[in-house]
Amino acid sequence: MEKITPKTLSGFMELLPKEQILFNKVTEIIKSNYEKFGFLPLDTPIIESSDVLLAKAGGDTEKQIYSVINGDLKEEKSKLSMRFDLTVPLAKYVTLYYPQLTFPFRRYQIGKVYRGERAQKGRFREFYQADIDIIGNEELSLINDAEIPSIIYNIFKELAFGEFVININNRKIMKGLFESLLLQEKSADILRTIDKLEKIGKEKIEIILKDDFNLSTKDIDFILNFANMSGTSAEKLQNLKNLNIENETYKTGVNELESVVENMRKLGVPEKNFNINLTITRGLDYYTGTVYETFLTAHKNLGSICSGGRYDNLADYYTNKKLPGVGISIGLTRLFDQILENNLLAEEKNSITKVLIVPMIENYEVCLNLASTLRKANINTEIYLEQTKFKNKLSYANKLDIPYVIIVGEDEVSGGYYTFKNMQTSEQQQLTLSQILDIFNK
Amino acid sequence: MEKITPKTLSGFMELLPKEQILFNKVTEIIKSNYEKFGFLPLDTPIIESSDVLLAKAGGDTEKQIYSVINGDLKEEKSKLSMRFDLTVPLAKYVTLYYPQLTFPFRRYQIGKVYRGERAQKGRFREFYQADIDIIGNEELSLINDAEIPSIIYNIFKELAFGEFVININNRKIMKGLFESLLLQEKSADILRTIDKLEKIGKEKIEIILKDDFNLSTKDIDFILNFANMSGTSAEKLQNLKNLNIENETYKTGVNELESVVENMRKLGVPEKNFNINLTITRGLDYYTGTVYETFLTAHKNLGSICSGGRYDNLADYYTNKKLPGVGISIGLTRLFDQILENNLLAEEKNSITKVLIVPMIENYEVCLNLASTLRKANINTEIYLEQTKFKNKLSYANKLDIPYVIIVGEDEVSGGYYTFKNMQTSEQQQLTLSQILDIFNK
């Protein structure tokens, strides 16, 4: 028989079992925190009608879309597409099931999305996003904007891979500032440029603002000093007020930011874990108020590991209903890739199985019964069922990091006990069933 | 702005939040049982190289494959495909990572697969499979064939949607029987025909066996009586032996079946939950020994809800290594569709959120602190953050089946207590924080 050489496509993460166990732990921490804050689970299809999926897309996004064709049904190339994020499917979902949903609608979705990017290090063509959004019907109170970062704080604290800072800003501040400088027409482009401050540096930004946008040196200095404002959150908020900029959008932005920061504190986010950063604006025009980016202090080069913000209209390309919302997305696959590469999570022994039963007798009855009893006590239990040397059986437990082994031989059966071995310490004890159960229950 | 009408494609399951919570519960029961028996998690890509995915496929399967194209990268139509099951990806995975895996390799995978079937009731184009397989290196002991149905028994017992029977057979029995009747050349076709006995009835099977396969009336009678053998498992096994069929394949099959049944009993599967059924053969030539199908007693029309068996070679289209295995697959989406349609799971109130805090004061500080405290105690807690009437806030809890509401107004704050409302009984109590925590911890 001619053999095909198996391979996995580049840009598609595929993990070994130990890595997968770790990935699932990270996912579980994210999921349980989302649920702790009252978010409902959602699982929309990976394939959607292209019309629906591309209602708002354009430019680079559209180029990266994977189209799907079924040979048999002879569907046209452009009829079906794979989702490229979880936001458009949410917009579709909320519009479609609007009458059956309860608002504010709080949902989380953790799922794979697809982008046909050229494969390169750290770029994935299939990757998980872990999103939460709170969608209001016509309106949504500002206090939700403070709850989102408090969830992020809880997640990254529990994940415990080092110091992190949630950067927070409000797009209305810069927008109002530009209006006051009579630069409102260029405002979106200037914002996009300033968003790159950390990435490309001050000098390059100055050149772009001068050459491409024709700004005066005075305006450039003012804008960049403004964006780079230093101090504590309280000092920055005070500075923003002291500037006495007479523009309503600006004032609203400052007030919103102050209120969000105040409520974040009340929700238990410590001062050291957030930072008012006037340079972040989240490129997309989609966002209209609060915006967030999250950085690991020791790994700023990773970029933002968790971003989002407030938007006025979730689904204006589907519906006339006003559906304001606030949300955030964790790029789980990219984050996990970095966790592995930088060893951000202590490489503890990770096994799901708690105990391996090693039969040393012909008749497996005692072993099978023991396994059933342990499983009924919710102890993940495996029996080594193959005929091989004792050494190989123990080696199996070692390779899989299974913490305990129970040896069942003639002596054990006639003596009415089990030999219980701690694989970490190599300590062996002769124990009864109830003593074994006590060890796992303590 | 021109609106696009949102829709979800037919053949793609998309659930409302309450249904999704139930779906996730079912999935969690399957997952935790798979883990209880020592299976490792796996998550392979949904898109694979077409060469790899279609190495073994052909006929109907190939026609149903979804191809994937990235407009920008101008990939050829047939280069990328979406997986149509979880077995081929497993074969790829085991071959590719063979040196890094520990054998016997026990893995579970719960994931979406894709088949471009014509949309019709109960048929899905995107659906979840929940698979387990145990893969041996060169060999795999028969006792694994008994463990698989004991896992299935534990899952369906815990899911508790009615009586179920795991049908079990061994393909060697029929194969040996046909050899003894000198019908071995037609054996695969006859087996496929007999597999349809329950579906199309005895008369039609007789006609097919006579007209298409040219069998004598005597042989047809013998085969059909054999397939329809009645009695308990013990009686059937005795009957199979009493026939004194002198064929080694047959004898091996009977001995294997006897051993598997004996070990299933030792693993705690009650007699009423399994049945030797000589008609089931699982169509595919892939299976070589034990085969399983599982039926709900009150819903036989659903067909088998969980099927699988033993195979000699997991990956002979990729490798010369002998990788025997045994596994089973639950068609989760189709099963859940039937659960919903037939109301197989009692419609209990399903909410993930345990308590809704309803602020009746301007200053949310007390509410935000309370929420943080409850969440730290692992109680899923939501705050109603919008400004609206009290009635609407309670109605939100009702609609989402949130079991408890904590009301925080001026009286509560000045009195140092909370009004704790049980939404099921409408009972209201004035409680302190520690009394509330006690209620959730008991």
Q: What would you note in describing this structure?
A:
- The structure is a homodimer of 442-residue chains.
- With 442 residues, chain A is an alpha+beta fold.
- In chain A, 39% of the residues lie in helices and 20% in strands.
- The first copy, chain A, contains 17 helices and 16 strands.
- Chain A has helices at residues 17-36, 50-53, 59-63, 87-96, 144-159, 171-180, 187-194, 197-200, 202-211, 217-227, 233-242, 248-266, 332-341, 365-376, 390-399, 410-415, 433-441; strands at 40-41, 47-49, 66-70, 80-82, 105-114, 126-135, 164-170, 274-276, 287-296, 306-311, 325-331, 355-359, 381-383, 404-408, 418-422, 428-431.
- In chain A, strand 15 and strand 16 form a beta hairpin.
- The longest helix of chain A is centred in the N-terminal third of the chain and has 20 residues, at 17-36.
- At the A-B interface, helix 1, strand 1, strand 2, strand 3 and helix 4 of A face helix 1, strand 1, strand 2, strand 3 and helix 4 of B.
